Amino acid sequence: MVVLPSGTLNLEGGGAVDLRAFAIGRFEVTQHEWRALMGDRPSTVAGPRRPVESVSWTEIQTYIARLAARTGRPYRLPAETEWDYAAGAGRQQREPYSASPAYSGAAGPLFMALERGARTVGAVGAREANPFGLHDMHGNVGEWLADCGSRDYLPVPPDGAPRDGPPSCDRAVRGLRPGMYPGSVWLDSVPVTLRLDGRHSWPVGGKDRHIGFRVALSIVR
Question: Looking at the domain 1-221, which fold is it?
Fold first, then answer.
């Protein structure tokens, strides 16, 4: 876990939220970590240090509950505002990943695109961390979030808390890399121009080989 400082996040579509300090996983949850609590290996590409994928949002709630019971700490999924803040390492300007050499496809040290045409995910932490010390925020697998999905992002609660809704609402997914679209085939022709604000959502009971997660933790002062 990495503790991130409080800060302001400018929102897509206007406005801003002030986020309190929180902790978030340095890496996506691995298959080893999942198996230790859940006893199974649901992923399509095996490897203890690879991120767990093909797990539903509903199943993740069971994992998080077991993790909290074992550690005595109230782990949870990140809010979308927290994920945005963490992925952008607190930067104010929203920009295409390709605007910086650090995010320029397979050659970029922060971008987990692997080689062109790769149809698999890599071990967590195989690429350099972003300025907050977080790995694979810009790919490897997409990540489930706590929020109900929203095409327009807004409205967001003033404190940046997750967007609420019925338990069955589709949930936000962020961080998919080029060519990774839930429920579809791999598209090698997609250009490496993902934006930080690229957004998706998926049914709570849905599973996809392109979607995993990382955990977060509120900081109580």
Answer: paralog of FGE (formylglycine-generating enzyme) (3.90.1580)
